[in-house]
Fold this sequence. Notes:
The complex is a heterotrimer of chains A (355), B (290) and C (334).
Chain A: E1 32-43, H1 47-54, E2 62-74, E3 79-83, H2 90-97, E4 105-110, E5 113-114, E6 125-128, H3 142-152, H4 161-171, H5 188-201, E7 206-210, H6 218-235, E8 239-243, H7 246-252, E9 255-260, E10 263-269, H8 270-275, H9 280-288, H10 327-331, E11 337-338, E12 345-346
Parallel strand pairs in A: 3-8, 3-9, 6-7, 7-8
Antiparallel strand pairs in A: 1-2, 1-4, 4-5, 9-10, 10-12, 11-12
Helix pairs in contact in A: 3-4, 3-5, 4-5, 5-6
Chain B: H1 3-12, H2 15-32, H3 34-37, E1 59-60, E2 67-68, H4 79-115, H5 117-132, H6 135-146, H7 150-177, H8 180-187, H9 192-228, H10 240-248, H11 257-289
Antiparallel strand pairs in B: 1-2
Chain C: E1 6-17, E2 20-32, E3 37-41, H1 48-56, E4 63-72, E5 75-76, H2 82-88, E6 93-96, H3 110-119, H4 126-139, H5 145-149, H6 158-170, E7 176-180, H7 188-205, E8 208-213, H8 216-222, E9 225-230, E10 233-239, H9 240-245, H10 250-258, E11 306-308, E12 311-313
Helix pairs in contact in C: 3-4, 4-6
Amino acid sequence: MNTAAVPLKAPASMPHQESPAHSPPAKAAPLLEVREVSRRFVKRLDLIERLAARLGADLHEQTVHAVDRVSFTVQAGEVVGLVGESGCGKSTLGRVIAGLHPPSDGEVLLEGRPIQLRAGQRPVVQMIFQDPFASLNPRMRVGDAIAQAPLAHGLIERGESEAYVARMLQQVGLAPEMARRYPHQFSGGQRARIGIARALAVQPRFLVCDEAVAALDVSIQAQVINLLMDLRRELGLTLLFISHDLGVIRHVCDRVVVMYLGRVVESGPIESLYNTPQHPYTQALLAEVPRLDRRGQRYQPIRGEIPSPLAPPTGCHFHPRCPQASARCSSEVPFLRDLPGAGVRAACHLLEPSA
Amino acid sequence: MSPWARFRADFAASRLALFGLIVLTLILVVALIAPWIAPQNPYDLGKLDLMDARLPPGSAAMDGGLVYRLGTDGQGRDMVSAILYGLRVSLLVGAASGLIAMVIGGGLGIVAAYLGGRFEQVLMRIVDIQLGFPAILVALILIATLGKGVDKVIIALITVQWAYYARTARSAALSERNKEYMDAARGLGLGRASIVLRHLLPNALPPLIVVGTVQIAHAIALEATLSFLGLGLPTTEPSLGLLISNGYEFMLSGKYWISVYPGIALLLTILSINLVGDQLRDVLNPRLAK
Amino acid sequence: MSAPLLQVQGLVTEFGTRDGAVRAVNGVSFDLAEGEVLGLVGESGSGKSVTGFSILGLIDPPGRIAAGSIRFEGRELVGAPPEALRRLRGHRIAMIFQDPMMTLNPVLRVDTQMVEAILAHERIPRAQALERCAEALHRVGIASPGERLAQYPHQFSGGMRQRVAIAIALLNRPSLIIADEPTTALDVTVQGQILYEMQQLVRDAGTALIWITHDLAVVAGLAERIAVMYAGRVVEQGSVDAVLDAPLHPYTRGLLDSVPANNPPGIALRQIPGMTPALAQLPPGCAFAPRCSQAAADCSREPAVQRIGAREVRCIRPLQVTAPAAHSSGEARP
């Protein structure tokens, strides 16, 4: 199936293996824009703790900078991957983009307008969740779960709901009769599909897939990934694909953003990231991923552990574990800069052109 | 299988619980049709014959009419009838207070869990304070203030019980609220009332139902205690507790049936409710874990 | 050739459910030599974890080992008295679980737990036991073991806890370690560190390792032999290179084909149609037949195990051993 032959509704087409020279689309206005978004979680002291602190106890408000001044854009029709490990903030960022958390700073714009999730208002961004068990209401029939929001927002009339649900289910490869069943009567892969149907039922402009296939078996994962890719083509969807699985990311995404402890460390087109990673963290990450073709692998782990988000290192967050760190790295925060090469950006002092 | 069919199958897995359910159903049915099956109306003072007082079980009436299968009490009432009518009052008071307390307490608890913040904190502190007092003490104080009467007893029992429901409902709702389907519901732009009613409530309900069944048993027992102490229900509408109390003075003179039979009826009622409630809890809980 | 360290023959483990007995493990056989690393691979419901638990005798009612034999160091484990099994566990055979909190007691200090694990099998002075603990923590790459010993599990990160669990497994120098998805829940970098340490440890101590996982890539880097499980049976076994480069069973082929890394980007992944069957409702004969592209009428009869050289496959029509496809060798990916 050569996807380049199928016309997409969106202006940009996916660069892939067959046309490596295809450069990112010229500056059409992006569909989604994340501008200097930060999200902090503050653990406030309660009454007793405040008293204790006043009396001299060593108690402070703790702030976690889950997402720290992240910016990137997504063109219509693109699939952008968001990659990182625990504590990198990708899930939090995904939730901010979906409107589930307001950003502490910065803004998220869809077609130029800030995304705001309001009760009673039709959402423009939808999220597909990781856990196919927990993300469906166990006491609601799946047909009702799919139809509830479109009905509430006036997308369909009550009389049409059955037909609409049937169409949604068929779109994700499930039989319409299944609408009467409850979630526990389905397998993990089927529930993942129901979650997708529910999200698509409100006809969103943008989808955030938060580890949407991570909890599935390998063979089912392939089915659901294929489904997402088919739907993307048929419906002209734009996706933010959050995952820790670099193999999946490489397969589905056009561009990828790598995060570490709340900040973006590198971003760029998929193949350049995999073939020529620029940032030391990206390099180490790719080197460490177990690969089918590496037998008797000699693992070369990065030293140290991911620091706690409550006490991140100063300067560049990665410097304690970076094999190439310099003095500047521990004191100065590197900014995301464009690098030579189409669309690649990285945040590393060592990559700056010598001053 | 629909959840209902599965639920029935799981429940029936325990013979003891089935037994409890059968007994409970019998008790409910009997209490419901009491006016039609009771040999006499024990509240009709005109019909009572003092000559028939304190007759042992099995004796016939002085005028040769009724056979008093379980004997008579101090005023010549047929024990069978008294027990049947007493069951009605006990169940009514227990069930009514339990259900109303469930609605009020459960509703407050669920809303508190959903809204969080000040409302939740204040409510939970009130609940904590209330639960710090022994139920019987609170009930006694209220009865003393409000006076006797069925409605006043029900109010007192509601006041005593709502806190249990509120606490259970809040913790159940809290654990549900952190689940992904709640995020999904919010992400779909659904209205807040819709989220609480269609998503949060049905999933927070099972533990509430379990607490409910056991609490109703407690309420019945509490009311019996109050009546035994002479507070609460008036003698014109005796509950089982009052019957036990009335018969207490006769225990030492060997006229056990006036207290013991109502006592057995009370025991069976509470026991069967507890058996059903226990099994409900076991059946509903593993599903919650899913 | 010395006798294998572990010999599993025809293992059947059943669980009693309301609808009858379900065979989570349905006739599994494999051998493990001393110091060998075996990857036991399968998806959910394949029975791989239950196999591991069965070897250790950790199957509780309503489950039971219904048939088969497990010979460890020449001794039969199936039907052995509980006391004999208890002596083996933690001493000659150790287990590492997916969730380190299944090994670690949250309310006890780490040194308490580790010393307890030693003293359960040996009578040595406490001070000497503590020294062994510190040394074990050091071997798994935990810095300042002396301080760490005095801490509680919640003061460790997820990766550290798993390392402590590994250290506990190694304390009594077992000859076999069974690891059930120990790195599945961990980040890539932490996984890399733990795999690195496991490799070292196994090499230095000559411990045999059964690594249970669904992740073929991990097994590719770590193991020498692979056994692939589906619906309670081993459908294929052989050396890692042989199985991954030239799979004989259609399921293994399908699994390898569906891995994103084995598919060109932007194009639909090759997928295995259908779903894993419910163990209570297996079709007669080959459990994979409903999803197999080359299934035929004779697949409704139970396929016997065929031996092809050093490999085994449970299929009436094993795939031809073709030249390895270009994408799966080391060249295509830098």
